[in-house]
Amino acid sequence: MGSFSIWHWLIVLAIVVVVFGTKKLRGAGGDLGGAIKSFKEALREGEAEASTSLATGTGDSHGDPLGDQLKARSIASKLRNLG
Q: Is residue 52 domain-resident?
């Protein structure tokens, strides 16, 4: 009684299609896919930028360069784990 069977999900899907229509659902799915794609691209760009600044030694490290590099490596590893 606590779990839904395939028939429950098919009925819910049919109701959603009737209420919203296939065009709106297709548009919403496309928008969601585009948002996910751009989010992943931004993560890759940020990771590449962080690794480039680590390799060249550039950045705004005024106080503790070693500490800033360790922070950047930590952030880059977290970004890799997300993707």
A: yes
Are 69 and 82 within 8 A, CB to CB?
no
Helices H / strands E in the chain, number of each:
3, 0
Q: Rounded distance, CA 41 to CA 24, Å? A: 26
pTM over 0.90: no
Asked if residue 1 is part of any domain, the answer here is: no
* Structural domain boundaries enclosing 72: 6-82
pLDDT in tens, 19-63: 989 888 889 989 999 999 999 999 998 888 888 777 776 655 556
Which one, of 72, 81, 64, 70, lies nearest residue 48 by Cα? Answer: 72
Write down how long the chain is: 83
Structurally, how many domains does the chain consist of?
Answer: 1
Please indicate, yes or no, if residue 38 is contained in any of the structural domains.
yes
What count of other Cβ atoms lies within 10 Å of the Cβ of residue 50?
19
